């Protein structure tokens, strides 16, 4: 391995299919898709040279690129339920080397389903191989539990009773008298690239254990795990600012209407008049943004009196009946003297993607189309029409609105 400046490639496998949690890798935790969270932490690492996301899904690819990763299209034959992470990593490494004309020295496997992995963990496993002579490394957390396993009879059926796995059940030593066990977190692994190709699996030679904070250990395998992660995110993410925009990042907020300020349903009475439902909390949030002296605009494709009436109620300028929202947005920014990178745009459907490409902070509501969520820099935990704009206002102003 080279003594200086090794090429350290972080690979994040992220399939589109997920049975336990549909579209899991695009699920938002702390307002950010899981795949984007992993990319951002890898990019913040001291040692990582580049970040590759291996995926078969267009939405995941868009989210990964938006967070700064290189995307490698994963072939179908290694994208199914039985495909191994090792196969995805080797394919991604091959594709990266072919396109960049450089050899990878150390390859990392980083799982985006561990939402609270941090750059220090990634640097820890990378340094173990790149700087400390290990062949492989993984993140672990100190573990003090007693592990049990149900006994089996000779036919392999469950038998009565259980047996201790890491202890003798007839003897219960004190914690300080027991050898220290470690739990594999599943978050990050590092391997010498040449040895990994030869072995075909992630553990060979000398394997170093890199300790991480047990409180951050969480793998998302089912909806309950996702709910726990979303509940914990405000606590952990508060220690690592930058995942969500603040008032210092933004000069203007531009809002789509249907599906963003509404739940995307339309009621039509017998005279053909359309009615939509909006959320009072969103009005509160918009008022708070106006008091914070942010420029505001409602931008809608639909030419509808309902949109204009809501804009008047909120005291927000409106442009509606717009075919090319991106051109209208660009012109508005020029007229207002606002740099597009200082604009937060909130949308929910594919006709918002062009505007997403113009602004610094594309934000999707929780109920947005999966491709839109994937292209967003942040995603609300609240559905459109149910207070999503109020949630965004709380991000920007750094407080809950009441």
Automatic annotation (TrEMBL):
EC class of the enzyme, as a word: transferase
One GO MF term attached to the UniProt entry: N-acylneuraminate cytidylyltransferase activity
Stretch list, region Disordered: 153-179
Pathway noted in the entry: Amino-sugar metabolism; N-acetylneuraminate metabolism
InterPro entries, alphabetized: CMP-NeuNAc_synthase, Cytidylyl_trans, HAD-like_sf, HAD_sf, KdsC_fam, Nucleotide-diphossugar_trans
Cofactor: Mg(2+)
Catalytic activity: an N-acylneuraminate + CTP = a CMP-N-acyl-beta-neuraminate + diphosphate
Similarity comment: Belongs to the KdsC family.
Keyword Ribosomal protein: no
Species of the source: Streptomyces malaysiensis subsp. samsunensis
Self-association and partners: Homotetramer.
Stated name of the protein: N-acylneuraminate cytidylyltransferase
Pfam short name (any one): Hydrolase_3
Gene3D superfamilies: HAD superfamily/HAD-like, Spore Coat Polysaccharide Biosynthesis Protein SpsA, Chain A
Keywords for this protein: Hydrolase, Magnesium, Metal-binding, Nucleotidyltransferase, Transferase
């Amino acid at each position: 391995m080279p003594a200086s400046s090794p090429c350290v490639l972080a690979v994040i496998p992220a399939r589109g299919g997920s049975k336990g949690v549909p579209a899991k890798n695009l699920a938002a935790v702390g307002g950010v898709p899981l795949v984007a969270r992993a990319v951002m932490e890898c990019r913040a690492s001291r040692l990582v040279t580049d970040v590759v996301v291996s995926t078969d899904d267009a939405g995941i690819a868009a989210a990964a690129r938006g967070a700064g990763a290189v995307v490698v299209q994963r072939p179908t034959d290694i994208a199914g339920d039985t495909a191994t992470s090792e196969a995805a990593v080797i394919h991604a490494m091959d594709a990266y080397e072919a396109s960049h004309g450089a050899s990878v020295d150390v390859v990392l496997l980083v799982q985006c389903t561990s939402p609270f992995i941090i750059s220090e963990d990634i640097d820890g496993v990378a340094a173990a191989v790149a700087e400390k002579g290990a062949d492989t490394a993984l993140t672990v957390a100190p573990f003090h539990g007693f592990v049990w396993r149900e006994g089996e009879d000779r036919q392999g059926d469950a038998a009565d009773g259980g047996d201790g796995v890491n202890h003798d059940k007839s003897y219960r030593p004190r914690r300080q008298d027991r050898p220290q066990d470690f739990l594999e977190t599943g978050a990050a692994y590092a391997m010498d690239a040449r040895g990994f190709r030869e072995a075909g699996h992630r553990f060979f030679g000398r394997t170093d254990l890199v300790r991480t904070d047990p409180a951050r250990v969480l793998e998302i395998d089912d909806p309950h795990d996702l709910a726990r992660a979303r509940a914990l995110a405000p606590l952990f993410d508060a220690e690592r600012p930058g995942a969500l925009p603040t008032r210092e990042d933004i000069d203007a907020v531009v809002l789509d209407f249907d599906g963003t300020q509404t739940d995307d349903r339309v009621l039509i009475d017998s005279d053909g008049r359309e009615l939509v439902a909006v959320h009072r909390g969103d009005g509160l949030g918009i008022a708070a943004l106006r008091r914070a002296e942010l420029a505001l605009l409602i931008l809608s494709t639909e030419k509808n009196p309902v949109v204009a009436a809501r804009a008047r109620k909120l005291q927000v300028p409106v442009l509606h009946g717009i075919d090319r929202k991106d051109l209208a947005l660009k012109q508005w920014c020029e007229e207002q003297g606002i740099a597009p990178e200082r604009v937060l745009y909130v949308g929910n459907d594919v006709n918002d993607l062009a505007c997403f490409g113009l602004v610094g902070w594309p934000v999707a509501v929780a109920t947005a189309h999966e491709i839109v969520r994937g292209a967003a820099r942040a995603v609300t935990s609240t559905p459109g029409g149910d207070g999503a704009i109020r949630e965004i206002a709380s991000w920007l102003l750094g407080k809950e609105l009441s």
